[in-house]
Amino acid sequence: MMGLPLAFTEPLLLIGLVSLPMLWWLLRVMPPRPRRIEFPPTRLLFDIAPREETPSRTPWWLTALRLLAAALVIFAAAGPIWNPQVGAAGSKAPLMIMFDDGWSAASHWDVRIKAADELIANADNDRRAIALVPLSEPNRDITLMPAGAARVALRQLAPKPYSIDRVETLVTIDRFLKATGDCEIAWLSDGVDTGRGEEFVQGLGQTIGDRSLTVFEGGTSSPLALVAAENAAARMTVKVLRTDSGIALGTVRALDQKASPIGEARYSFGPQDKETEASFDLPVELRNDITRLDITGERSAGAVQLLDKRWRRRAIGIVTGTSSETAQPLLAPTFYLTRALAPFADVRLADRGSPQQGITQFLDQKLPMIILADVGTVAPELRERLNAWIDQGGVLVRFAGPRLAQAEDDLVPVKLRKGGRTLGGSLTWEKPQHLAAFAADGPFAGVVVPKDITVSRQVLAEPDAVLATKSWASLEDGTPLVTGEHRGKGLVSLFHVSADMRWSDLPMSGTFVEMLRRVVDMSGYTAKPGPGVAGEATAETVAPLHILDGFGAFGPPPATAKPLPADYRDRATPDHPPGFYGPAEGPLAVNTLAASDRIAALNTASLRARHATYTNAEPRDLRGWLLSTALALFLIDAIIVAVLGGGIAALLRRRAAPAMIVFGLAIAGLVSLSPTPSRADGASDEFAMKAVSQTRLAYVVTGNADVDSIVKAGMSGLTQFLAQRTALEAGDPVGVDPGRDELAFFPLIYWPIVPGAPKPPQDAINKIDAYMKQGGTVLFDTRDAIEAPPGDNGAAQTAGMQTLRQILSSLDVPELEPVPREHVLTKTFYLLRDFPGRFSTGQTWVETLPRDDDDDSAQRPARGGDGVSPIIITSNDLAGAWAQRLDGQFMLPMAGGDARQREFAYRAGANIVMYTLTGNYKADQVHAPALIERLGQ
Question: Which residues pair with 317 in a beta bridge?
Fold first, then answer.
């Protein structure tokens, strides 16, 4: 209604609003004027003050008050519903629900699932069949199913980590509609056009014809995306995209290969900005460790930018054999090389001295790439060091010149002729040569060759059988311009022209920059030796390693993921989803969006459809509120009339005593309705009944909203895991306040430590102490294992551990030790060696086991019942590993590299719960052989 989420069950009753003008006229009617007769003695009555005065007309504001009360009654009779469920009530036609299930739908996926669930519920009430159509699967058959099956199929849907092409599903939709006939259609749109959006909207309008269509869009924030990450000379930048408008702020995180945070960068959108930039001002060494950028709080694969070695700024050393950089620095080879490499590498020039000293300097610095510009003969001992460096993965690029043309060494990919070749000189008939097009299977494939580049001199390679496989670029006459080959794990390449303008004008072109960029990129992928890059490029493929799901979380590769070429640079596709491909030590990153991709809002205005918005609110009947408000207005009207007519004053004068009694009774009634301690007792009884009705786990409410929400979700996730894997079907976890709530109902209490939080009051400490002595177990989790500094005592120096020390200082805590290898906690349900959470580096501490010669072990403080430790301490953030959202996705990523770490975290939680519930009976089983042997004696 008028753009508001409001509907009426009986909208025809709103016609009653037409009667309000007539009601206004009736309320304004005044009695007839009295007849006026001239009577002289009435002059005596003028001096008598009247007791009360009656106005000739009702005040306008009182009339308006009455009209408002009447309008509220009419609205209430029409049955207003706020946030009504969308659907064609009473229809018998089948319902087809279309889903946008690409990466752009992931950020609010639970909202879309909720909207689809409501549509299915409405269709179920009308006994209608339902068809689900994910627009990412054009080859999927569309079939009608009952509501129960549709709900199961709905829960199996998940957003895809790539952009979907909606147009491809139009053929399947058209075929289904022709076979079905009349059909109601609902499109759960994400509102994002990632390509061909207008074409799909037009095609959809033609396909559905005059059928009923409801488009769900709006009501949620625009999805955000990251593209075009660039590791520049001073900082790393990444572009943030959106489709809506308005001022917005956010943060982009930078993580390393172990998911450890490296830095954060803020970004901001102006009122009309669709694109902005986040910048990381970090040292180049830290920027080179970044493997993942993501937007904080945005759950989608499009909000993640993965980085591999191509984004690292490699340190490249340049050594030149000429002396022109001193006399004429703007004409020196180092000038052109520095300018060409600066956008994507950190260039280091050798100190002034001999080329041998410069090479030694860079080898000592262990640079990954060295460029030698017209360096002739290299000393034998230095040549051996260079060969060993290349075998270990170094990249050597050489440029020709007069010195190289006369030298003899093996640090070139091909054997050279002495003297070189001159083109276009006075003593030659040959003209300067142009560059030939780059081979489609070579390292420079796709680079545009300008027609104005000419080569006037070059060093020639001796022809042999493998020269063609080592040629990366050639002149139009077929002679090599650039050659290269793999050696060990490294690479050797030679430009057969000089790095300055003496032999060619290639260094002045943009092609020169792109060629050097390709060589630098290849330096990260030289793991296999071979005869030449040109011969290997088409055959080398890399298999998927870690793949992103639609929510931007890493997981194992799906069965549909296929290997891709090692030089793949495009956006993700269904066959090549985003993630890392290739070996773990040097993977290739594939992102959801390419650097040039942009997103826009999807325009559905041309569709003849009903438009609805997503909402998280439940439908709400407003009749009670409207009728209550109307009744209150009528009471106010009665009081006003009584005051204006003098009725209340007269009542007080004539019936003073009864009026005081009524007033006193009213005050007493208000006092009786006010909260009393008995209500608090009732709340305590309700808490107790809830706690003892089922076995429940508990957690301490810290007051930090973020921590409490994660811990609650984590305890719920552990409870669900226990119901699936064990015989324990526990109730929902309960948040407790140790200072107020009774703790004896819970076998285990999880206490997340918030660094810097104030120490609990002494009453709460005393209750915790009594709880531990009576057999309960408290699991303290500082959640900071990853923050512990290196060293044996590093874990005790974190802020969370310092806060825990303050709490434990007032508790009667027993002696603690790391969980021994044979402790019953390691085998209560699963056989475990450690107890990981989100982190796996922290230790887990329990009460020290009594020694055989410990006579007074029974007198230890806080001795747990049945051999159960009353206290367990960890720093691995167990609840963070258990925490799940309503849609089943995990809330926080794991910090370890083991793909099964989250599974082991759940198993650790199961062991801890079973340990607190069953005590040390498993310990008795361990000693069963010894007991049987003793009984036999």
Answer: 348, 370
